[in-house]
Amino acid sequence: MSHRTAREDLAAAIADAVLQVPGVAFLKPGLAARLQAAMPWPGRSGTAGQAGAVRITPPDAAGGPLHVTVEVVARLGHRALDVTRAVRTAAETAATEARAAPVSVRVTITNRV
Known about the structure:
Structural class: alpha+beta
Number of strands: 4
Number of helices: 3
Mean pLDDT: 83
Distance between the termini: 36 Å
Oligomer: single chain
Strand content: 15-25%
């Protein structure tokens, strides 16, 4: 049985959408993802570690947009600008479909392979 929060579900949905973008090699693994890969825990989904590269900050008190930060590693042979734009679009679409609220997305390409 999984006890994921709505934020974790949203991060996983965004991660899944971003991984479908041409030119994305993988999401940047964070420390938590590396530890989960080294010591798999029962009941964890396959995207649990991947969602660590997707950070979600709730809107401010004034009702601004939901802030999403995505860190990816791009494939060589793909223009970084094109990958960034496609990742932003995929993340915005996934977040809007899941939440139906304004979303602000920041994309960082951390490396290329």
